[in-house]
Amino acid sequence: MSISFDLSQDHLDLRDWVHTFAADVVRPAASEWDEKEEFPWPILEEAAKIGLYSVDFFATQAFDPVGLGIPITMEELFWGDAGIGLAIVGTALAAAGVSSNGTADQVGEWVPQMFGEPGDLKLGAFCSSEPDAGSDVGAMRTRAVYDEATDEWVITGTKTWATNGGLADIHVVTAVVDPELKTRGQASFVIPPGTAGLSQGQKFHKHGIRASHTAEVVLDRVRVPGRCLLGGKEKLDERLARARDGARKGGSNASMATFERTRPAVGAQAVGIARAAYEVALDYAKTREQFGKAIIENQAIAFTLADMKTQIDASRLLVWRAAWMASQGKSFDAAEGSMSKLMAGETAVKVTTQAMQILGGNGFTREYPVERMSRDAKIYTIFEGTSEIQRLVIARTISGAPIR
């Protein structure tokens, strides 16, 4: 069997199409929406008009037989701008939450309502983290209690760091249904539009990715129909019964497997930011003169750029490997998904910082985009699992030891 690192024509066309949108629409608007710290509705509308923001597009790429459609899309969009990029793809996380846990009927009902259509845009929000339960999902306090008389679930709690939180039409919320089972006693619910008791709490003013809306979501005795429990009650009851019987199966392992498959997409976003900063630094080094010559002729600058390029390409290869493994249903025996996210996130922070250094004083001003890229990059060592959590996952996987 031959091995090729060449992209197919379909992938090349996808890359060029998304890149053109990122270059012509996203990048020119990046500074404006970063300064406003507002959700970029006009840019989302443009994405919807060409079919980039749509349930059909994300579904098509999710079923790419080699798994590269999503990473390619993410890298090119976030090459344009991370804040606007996250505004465009944030709904996809909520859609993935429904697709991975819901029935076929639930996917068909709720996912299209997360996107809407041009002229009538909708958003989805995935709500998992809490003020006292970020990396420690076992500390989750949001509770869901079943009311058998009405076939409704009553959900109470506060979620934080929710992309599109409070702004979204459809919220996907994780909650505890059996506190004694800890992580294995959790379930996911869809909160339909206009449901009483759901409100937006604090909107966060962030260091970076400012065009992406991030806020708390408050659930005050929110009542949702039984059909809003993803997967259905029968499946939940069976899972809880196995957990009570001590079966080594269910929530925690399943969650880790899911994250391993979604982390390459996040890694691809970081690769896009790093590549953008590297390209700015490279162009600057070729044209900026000091002591009568272009600064790229100085070995210190040239070697820094060589390291930046090497780290970016290495990160991309780790992302592509993990994405391909997920598409083939392969086991992540060495936590390859976490490896890709760890490497790409750390590379984005390092490369954007190095780009600022190469630009000197100019890099520290908002006249050049590397200042914004550096701010955006930092979140990739924090959200979707911190770098420390990625190392913990990798260490536990390769050692088999309960490392803490």
UniProtKB/TrEMBL annotation:
SUPFAM superfamilies: Acyl-CoA dehydrogenase C-terminal domain-like, Acyl-CoA dehydrogenase NM domain-like. Pfam families: Acyl-CoA_dh_1, Acyl-CoA_dh_M, Acyl-CoA_dh_N. Residues 8-114 form the Acyl-CoA dehydrogenase/oxidase N-terminal domain. InterPro entries: Acyl-CoA_DH_CS, Acyl-CoA_Oxase/DH_mid-dom, Acyl-CoA_Oxase/DH_mid-dom_sf, AcylCo_DH-like_C, AcylCo_DH/oxidase_C, AcylCoA_DH/ox_N, AcylCoA_DH/ox_N_sf, AcylCoA_DH/oxidase_NM_dom_sf. Keywords: FAD, Flavoprotein, Oxidoreductase. Residues 125-222 form the Acyl-CoA oxidase/dehydrogenase middle domain. GO terms for molecular function: acyl-CoA dehydrogenase activity; flavin adenine dinucleotide binding. Its cofactor is FAD. Residues 251-398 form the Acyl-CoA dehydrogenase/oxidase C-terminal domain. Belongs to the acyl-CoA dehydrogenase family. This is Unannotated protein.
